[in-house]
Amino acid sequence: MNGQSRFFGICPYLYDTGTFCLSAIAMVFTDFCFFYIL
What we know:
This protein is mainly alpha-helical.
């Protein structure tokens, strides 16, 4: 849950800067961390 909160908090910033690629990478990294924690 903590990882998801961090992702949702940084996602708008990535979209604002226009770095869609970084946003996609962050999403994949967050998913990996989420499953790793579980």
